[in-house]
Specification:
Helices cover 36% and strands 18% of the residues. It is an alpha/beta fold and 226 residues long. The strands form four sheets. The chain has a five-stranded parallel beta sheet with strand order 6-7-1-8-11, with helices on both faces. A hairpin with a 5-residue loop joins strand 2 and strand 3. Helix 5 crosses helix 6. The two termini are 29 Å apart.
Length: 226
């Protein structure tokens, strides 16, 4: 099934940014993956939940309803970020959907967003059970689980450890300190310099603070921002 087709400019930006991400991921696997380090992260910032869900499904895959009433798992268009592989859901979420505006407000997540992210929330519950035996996951709110997933990106042994992609509604909080973000795409109007700086800032946190003895300085690190 075809599903949603992004506007040409948006699809071009996504595929171009992903090609750069693939190269970065290959370098990560060659140097850091074998050491158990978390992967680089690509983030997409959307203006609302309608756009974010369309972009998320296009990137990460979806459960499509067929004309005969059956369902078919459709892989995402960006393989390294797809949550569907070989006809089944991946055991750990590679890409997550976050309504950062509602998470920061402290209010319960809206019904539309909870429905859109239902499978991801259930996957987080399963991961939380595995890592916290005996914990009553049913007492944890969906918002708390999503906050846990977002705040533990790049942290070993946490439910956000394996996340490679984040599709966010609104800008991620200034206190979010993931230093593995290498690629950022803003799919929204930026009416202030501050918002532009926030997007760029997500990719400016250094990952490696080891000084190269040959040059007496840190190795250069780069972030791609569209």
């Amino acid at each position: 099934p075809q599903g949603w087709v992004p506007p040409l400019v948006l699809e071009g930006a996504l595929r171009s940014l992903y090609r750069s991400y693939e190269q970065n991921y290959a370098r990560y696997e060659a140097r850091l993956g074998a050491l158990g380090e978390p992967p680089p992260v690509l983030i997409v910032v959307c203006p609302n939940t309608i756009v974010s869900k369309l972009v998320f499904d296009w990137i990460a895959g979806r459960d499509a309803e067929m004309p005969d009433g059956s369902s078919l798992l459709v892989p995402g268009n960006l393989p390294l970020l797809s949550n569907v592989q070989d006809g089944t859901w991946t055991t750990r979420q590679r890409t997550i959907l976050i309504d950062s505006e509602q998470l920061e407000s402290g209010q319960p997540l809206g019904a539309d967003f909870k429905k859109a992210a239902a499978r991801e929330i259930e996957a987080f519950k399963q991961a939380y059970r595995l890592r916290n035996p005996g914990a009553d996951v049913d007492k944890i709110t969906d918002g708390e689980l999503l906050r846990e997933a977002m705040s533990t990106i790049r942290k070993k042994g946490k439910i956000g450890e394996c996340v490679r992609g984040v599709v966010s509604v609104s800008m991620l909080t200034g206190g979010w300190d993931a230093n593995t973000v290498t690629h950022s795409l803003g799919v929204r109007p930026f009416r202030s310099q501050l918002l532009c700086e926030q997007v760029v800032g997500r990719g400016l946190r250094r990952r490696n603070y080891a000084v190269n003895p040959e040059i007496g300085r840190f190795e250069p690190e780069y972030g791609e921002v569209y």
